[in-house]
Write a structure and sequence with these properties.
Radius of gyration: 16 Å
Strand content: 35-45%
CATH architecture: Alpha-Beta Complex
Helix content: 10-25%
CATH class: Alpha Beta
Number of domains: 1
Number of strands: 12
CATH topology: hypothetical protein yedk fold
Structural class: mainly beta
């Protein structure tokens, strides 16, 4: 799963935004938690756009924002069967940029937050988006089974995209069946990890994760 992530304007993040083809400067955000606004990149009529979206999907057909069901992550296995995700998988895919994300590893003394990051660049999450009542743009991050390299930390991971996969994901002419290989439990690039200060367990602490 993915329950917290960070956006730092490192060179890798600048390169990722440039590669996505939208002229925008992202605000730095730390220890982002579900329901908070995050930038998403998507394509409409052949043009790519960047907008802020509430990180907790609010389907267009719903009665409005609701946290009864945990819709900040969408399991890749359910995309074709869920009413909330099926149409979006076909027509409203997005990329969510990330510098690092947090998973919690079970240990003898409790759960230790682990920061996962790409040492040579930024991470691009596969996501879905929707717009409710012409008022709220929202999104969800797609997850899949963890790759062998990180499954000891958590049994799920966000779907991460490299350059070619990002272009395929954002191209709405791509049939959804041709995208399912992106959900295989493998990493598109090396992901490093390190334990960080548990202070970030509290989402009110908007600080960069500090290694311990």
């Amino acid at each position: 799963m993915c329950g917290r992530f960070n956006i730092s304007m490192t060179k890798g993040m600048v390169d990722l935004v440039d590669d996505l083809g939208v002229s925008v400067t992202l605000a730095e955000q730390y220890n982002i938690a579900p329901t908070e606004p995050v930038p998403i990149f998507y394509e409409q009529d052949g043009q790519r756009e960047c907008h802020l979206a509430r990180w907790w999907l609010t389907p267009s057909w719903s009665s409005g924002p609701d946290t009864q069901f945990a819709m900040f992550n969408a399991r890749s296995e359910n995309l074709e069967t869920s009413r909330a995700y099926k149409g979006l998988f076909h027509h409203k895919r997005c990329v969510i940029p990330c510098s690092s994300f947090i998973e919690w590893q079970k240990g003898p003394s409790g759960k230790q937050p682990i920061e996962l990051f790409r040492e040579d660049g930024a991470i691009a999450f596969a996501g879905l988006w929707d717009c409710w009542n012409d008022e709220i743009i929202s999104c969800t991050i797609i997850t899949t089974e963890a790759a062998p390299e990180i499954e000891a930390i958590h049994n799920r991971m966000p779907v991460m995209l490299d350059h070619d996969a990002r272009n395929r994901w954002l191209d709405m002419s791509q049939p959804s069946d041709d995208l399912k290989d992106l959900f295989e439990p493998r990493l598109p690039y090396p992901i490093a990890h390190r334990p960080v200060d548990p202070v970030i367990n509290n989402s009110r602490h908007k600080v960069l994760p500090a290694a311990i």
